[in-house]
Structure of Saccharopine dehydrogenase:
Amino acid sequence: MSRVLIIGAGGVSSVVVKKCAMLPEHFSEIHLASRTVSKCIALQEEVGKDRVVGAYAVDADNVPELVELINQVKPSLVINVALPYQDLTIMDACLETGVHYLDTANYEPKEEAKFEYSWQWAYHDRFKEAGLMALLGSGFDPGVTNVFTAYAAKHYFDEILYLDIVDCNGGDHGQAFATNFNPEINIREITQRGKYWEDGQWHETDPISIRKDLDYPGVGVRASYLLFHEELESLVKHFPTLKRARFWMTFGDAYLNHLKVLEGIGMTSIEPIDFNGQKIAPLEFLKAVLPNPGSLAEGYEGKTCIGTYITGIKDGEEKTIFIYNNCDHAACNAEVGAQAVSYTTGVPAMIGAMLMLNGTWMKPGVWNMEQFDPDPMMERLNQYGLPWHVLDNIESPFSK
Ligand code: NDP
């Protein structure tokens, strides 16, 4: 049986739902639940009630509510594409009901941006003892970037030493300012202090303070800024030979200027303020007025290029490779009515779910993507819309 319960009905969810719906042999029944049930119903009507058989309202911050829903639906797997705030409550409910779990972003407490796995890794023994699996970060970054790293380590190197993950959105959605996934999470990620791993320790940097111009295949040269991104934590743990691990993301000047102004006036703060006798977090208010990322697809032009540069040793010689994917916004819109950032997250979530359900990646415990054989995921990325390329033995754009 491959009945899945998908929680969350935003930009990423719509891709997961549609991709799963195309594959009845892997996902026999899809159930969709979220905070706003009308969004679930709209998606159900768009995809068809024969594939999305149930649409439900659920507050995923509330464990008893989740338990009741999971007991009613009786899925084999819960796919969490709500927000990182809900990871632990959904994991608790999965443990209580005996159901496997998958997500695309690590748990975040509301009060403080942390981007770390400690809370979810602490569930490992409980999941293992219950014979259940939790797959963490099955999106693109984290997700495919972890798998690219594992694939490079398996097929191209004896030892990997330097890792630079690069995330470029070379697209244009025509809006003055918009984020490509949930604005609250996106802005928290970008405005936190930068951090990278070198010589056995973390080094902090001021936010968006280190820039490098990189040439992205299929896109061109783009200003890229050093950020901390959650997959660095698990990759450094699981590949202890890494001497350095960093993450870079591209931003245009207009985006950074908007962000600077918003930050300057306190609009990106998660600290609640009093407004007409009500407590509101400025960032939550900002989210409410920004375009919904799921609505950006129409007219979005250009491509993303996300990949991993890896330098290491093969047969005694040092070399560098680049593994990457290009994803075209307009092609994603034509296929599933989504922009490429939702698509590049939703497709690996669907594939991760498929690999769990068919037993290929099934192992009790809480796991990151790089802890599994990368080959089955790499094969299916080519098959389901995210083809990748390897540039072998290239000159690294990064100095050591
Ligand atoms: P959206 O904001 O578009 O969607 C989030 C959905 O979750 C909404 O439908 C929202 O409901 C629902 N939700 C929020 N809180 C609750 C709650 N308490 N109970 C039930 N449902 C709730 O976000 P995205 O689709 O852009 O992102 C989804 C996830 O994917 C995020 O965790 C994000 O961090 C992750 N992501 C991962 C990436 C990767 O590469 N690994 C890249 C991009 C995103 P409502 O409609 O009522 O607001």
Remarks:
- DSSP finds 14 helices and 18 strands in the chain.
- The pocket of NDP is lined by residues 8-13, 34-36, 39, 58-61, 81-84, 86, 104-105, 137, 139-143, 181-182, 185, 293-294, 341, 345 (CB under 6 Å).
- The mean pLDDT is 96.
